Amino acid sequence: MSWQSLLFDIFSFGIMLYSIILILSYIFIGVYSIGETKYYLNKNSFTDYNAISSSSEAPRVSIIAPAYNEGATIIENVRSLLSLHYNNLELIIVNDGSKDDSLEKLIAKYDLYKTSYFVNSQIKTKPVKGVYKSRKLIYRKLIVVDKENGGKADALNTGINISSYEYTVCVDVDCILEQDSLLKLVKPFLENTTKKVIATGGVIRIANSCVIENGRLIQVNLPKKFLPRVQTLEYIRAFLLGRMAWSRLNGLLLISGAFGAFDKEIAIKCGGYDTETVGEDIELVVRMRRYMEELDLPYKVSFIPDPLCWTEAPDNFKILGRQRNRWTRGTIETLKIHKKMFFNPDYGILGLLSYPYWFFFEFLAPIIEFFGLISLAFFAYFGMINWTYFINLLLMIFSFGILYSVFAILMEVLTYNQYKKKTELLKLVLTAVLEPIFFHPFVVYSAIRGNIDYLRKKKSWGEMTRTGFGTTNKTPTS
Amino acid sequence: MIQLKPLIYLFFGTSLVLLIYMLIFLLIKNIKREKYKRWTKICNNIINNTVYSDDLNVKHHHKSIENLLLIKTFRKLLTKKIRSATVSFSGNSNNSLRKLYLKLRLDKYVIENLNTNNWHVKARAIQEIGIMKLENMYDKVYKNTNHRNELVRAEAQITIIKLVGFKGLKFLDSVTQPISEWYQMILLRELSHFDYDSFNGVDIWLKSKNTSVVIFALKLVDEYHLFELYKEVELCIEHPDEKVRQQTIRSITKIFNTTTANLFTSIFENETFNNQLEIAKALQKIGTEDDIPFLVHQLQTENIELKIILTRTIAQINPNNFETICSELDPDTYPMNLIILQIKEEITI
Q1: Residue B8 is nearest to which of A120, A187, A392, comparing CB atoms?
Q2: Residue B72 is part of which domain span?
Q3: Domain A49-174 belongs to what architecture?
Q4: Where are the transmembrane segments (chain B) (predicted)?
């Protein structure tokens, strides 16, 4: 047996084994999520959310919304956040050193004055230049913080320092929230009797092509453009299947940075958001979980399948590429920071299942795919490829991809059925067919770029990252 | 080598089956929607006649009602409509709707559902009993107040309150399963629909082994200002559970007497940080000038969050004299200089 054929056998076996495990994981996730969603929907049909909105016993919540150069829409966005159905609430807008007139607009619109607010810097942040409150009683919930630019994580940490309530809800200021989203997000904190709920999250949906008026979602439409549409499908898969299954296992690692609630005490004890990573949302959840595991405290990260938050997805490859590149770097950084947990039984599900899953199927998948392609070219050069078998393998993976997407669409139809027009459903199915051909390769490419960027920045890590945060046009979102 | 073709067929085939299932589901849903529209019209008509004309003669208006009631989906729809209308209306309309429910013999199905092992069907049946005030089913519901399924148990507890008001709280004598904060909130809301009548048992619940029962009992003390239970509540301040002690601090503040502030200051140093914050906040409401030296002394803490709350408490106890007291608070050093500035601004607004 030549070394080439030995290498080929190892390669074929490795790829096959990886594919089988990956497919089995997806099947497990898909099937396992059904129970959790069904349980939630049945239970939720009994829920009267007015109980929280009207009760003085409702937990007190601080919404933290970082803003960087959002002058064009800031007034509208703040109005939308102020109109949420919730009583025990304070809204903290953190102006992260905007170069535009965001602050001036807020001061004028909400009749703000600079207070002598003492910032208790429990988490170290860039300096706060001023804390503003409104003279008008109707805006008493609003606090505007003006600070030096330090990036999204730094802005969120400042918000946590300022907040006076026990739960913090971190939200991207340009997101559209459902009116009852806070009520739904907060409920899990009140429900658990045996485990402390440390964080909760809900489904993020794509708002492109939807009708939005006065900061409110009026009509849901499937995005007209291909890129946002394929991301809609991606989000349905990720949220309705992936996160629901991980939530049921109590192994959820990620609460989206666009809209998530945290127990403030635990978040502070963990040191708040890490400003050295671009994946601050996943990193915080992992750190909070790690903290609870190390103290051996029973806890849960909760997730609900209700669509709570609508966000605009990138509609061109340039911005999408940047986003995916950032997500990849965030994942690598988080996995690296918490490598101690890898297959470490001391961390339970987190160490034995969640971390390895993210390592093998979120971080390694694009790398394996990329090197698979290179190896394919190599073995093809030596004439060792059985093309019929190779095409069958591709077809198998392609067919499974379609099956998983169709299953996600079915779950969407059976549960929330947001896209009611017949053509929308057809387009969504068609998108499921086209995605592996036209979208997936780009995602792999962006992930590889993310890996390369990560390795490059590793040499001069801290400074470059901070400069990157400071020079971006928008506070990074994830 | 693994044979891939069967897998390809399997995946494509399953996708196709799922797609067909989805289409059939949507088609049936569409057909049902038309039928439901018709049925909804009938249901609304029946309910409107009941509410606005007090006309319970359903057969007179809808001759086919008996046949329709044999169809499970129609029955479920009508029950749901009556249920939600009963929640929305009060007084005579509410009574008429309940009479209608009984006249249509919808209650016999509730017993079937109550006996099922399907938790959400059982919970729904219990909820229905509460809304329709089917008092004859009290015992059957009561049995479920300690059910192992949280939803069934909670709905049973809520229903018992709906049926008999404050007397229904006797389930707290025996409940061993925890009552979540969420359901405690719902129970308090249910109780608020009844005129307050004195109720017994709180002293026993304050000693319960179930900490959630103790917390709920403390909330009752808080909500209904049960001054007569001061001594029993005071004992809870030594409870081993931090959350119970925290609720005790909150509740005893509502029924405080001249000794309460002293009680707080005596336990302060041995309490957890969260409970120290709670005590400091409580003293904002019940503290007197006598407590100020104690509070000033506690300002030596390294914890800034506690410093802020303590300073606020001092200011709120005597806002007019705060300026004078400030000289004792180390007003020229960080962070007290900034904290004092903030608190001064707070009390002047």
Answers
A1: A392
A2: 39-105
A3: Alpha-Beta Complex (3.90)
A4: 6-28
